Amino acid sequence: MDVIAENVTQIWPGRHGDDVVALDSFSHRFASGRFSCLLGPSGCGKSTLVQIVGGLEQATSGAVRIVDPKRPDAMRPLGADSVMVWQHLNLFPWRSVVDNVAFGLEMQGVPKAQRHERARALVASVGLRGFENHLPGHLSGGMRQRVALARALILERPIMLMDEPFGALDAQTKIVMQEELLRIFDETKKTILFVTHAIEEAILLGDEVIVMTARPGRIKEVIKVDLPRPRSLEMVSSKAFGELFDRAFHLIREEVMTSMAQQAKALEEQ
Ligand code: ADP
Ligand code: MG
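# adenosine-5'-diphosphate complex -> structure
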């Protein structure tokens, strides 16, 4: 499934009556089966964009279309083909791992035996065999993130919208989860929109890195990442990786400075 954003503009009402232009004419085609990373400073509209793509917010102007390349004329409703994975997991604390993972199927009315079988297989595939009956509160942060991933995967939607999913994890756990996600991507070839403000993460995971400007969020440059797949962490030390990193760093640096100045100004005005 392609995600086609056309001139998406989002204006939020500000607290002091002044409007905040979060996104300004954002246009991009997120192609089927491609891993796209959105890289930009805090407040540049990354979360706003994925929420619009997921059908959770309506853009002030412009449009997002979901298009099946095999049936380009069929209109798909926003949200129907995608699933979101956030940093804040929203797991149900009173439900076991398997019941959290099976939740989406339960909502679809899939009988218990069937949904549990599918959920158990996914729990195992994200490395949590043996923890099926644990409650989320008894798991580490990384394990909870795996549950959230399995819960999203069970829906088998072709588009995954990931908003800084590993942002709250410690460095080691983050590496393991990045490898996990790379493996899942190689197996399922979903269309992935992955929001991050970490340059290294964007290059390691993505087929392209969409560098955004400070607010109002626009596309500054799209960097093609032609590192081979399967990717591995060893690539981080390669020359090609270093060059991509430098390119992205150079682009993002200026935007982070602008974003910091904006934040300082906002504080002054409070
Ligand atoms: P990012 O995810 O890149 O950090 P966001 O998309 O969360 O950025 O926010 C972009 C801008 O829009 C910020 O200035 C933020 O305060 C504002 N914003 C985001 N969501 C809302 C909302 N629901 N209401 C009002 N302003 C919002
Ligand atoms: Mg955000």
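# post-check
Helices lie at 46-53, 97-101, 103-107, 112-125, 141-153, 171-188, 199-205, 239-269.
The pocket of adenosine-5'-diphosphate (ligand 1) is lined by residues 12, 20, 22, 40, 42-48, 215 (CB under 6 Å).
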